[in-house]
Amino acid sequence: MFALVFGLSALVSWLLPPLAILFGIIALILGIAGVSKADGYRVTGKGVAASGLVLGLLGALLGLAIIAGLANFLTNEQNLQMIENEIQDLRGEVELPSP
């Protein structure tokens, strides 16, 4: 059950990639433990554990993909120059009060 909760949390927290990766890893661990425990006699919940495992894996991969994409975007010199130009334009448009 907890694997499913952490797996869903990993998918929902994609805006915070480190948190998504953390929740995904926890879901993977709990999912593996749940699937192995559910192989016993009269034990249910194997499907829930497997779902948590899959969602945790997807959440962790999504978090890693977002971090890799941001790293790729921010290491490109043209993108950094574009961001700096936008910041300068915004500073020109907004007058900050003097302290």
Give a written overview of the molecule:
- This protein has 99 residues and is mainly alpha-helical.
- It has a domain at 2-66.
- The chain contains 4 helices and no strands.
- Helix 2 packs antiparallel against helix 3.
- The protein starts with a helix and ends in a 6-residue tail after the last helix.
Radius of gyration: 21 Å
Shape from CA axes? elongated
How many strand segments? 0
Unreliable parts: none
Largest sheet properties: none
Query: What is the arithmetic mean of pLDDT?
Result: 87
Q: What is the count of helical runs?
A: 4
* Oligomeric status: single chain
Proportion of strand residues: under 5%
**Helical content, roughly?**
over 70%
- What's the helix-strand series? HHHH
C-alpha termini separation: 54 Å
Would you tell me the structural class of the helices and strands? Answer: mainly alpha
Concise overview:
The chain is mainly alpha-helical and 99 residues long.
What labels would you give this structure?
mainly alpha, 4 helices, 99 residues, single chain
Layout of strands and helices, then pairs:
Blueprint: H1 2-12, H2 17-37, H3 46-75, H4 77-93
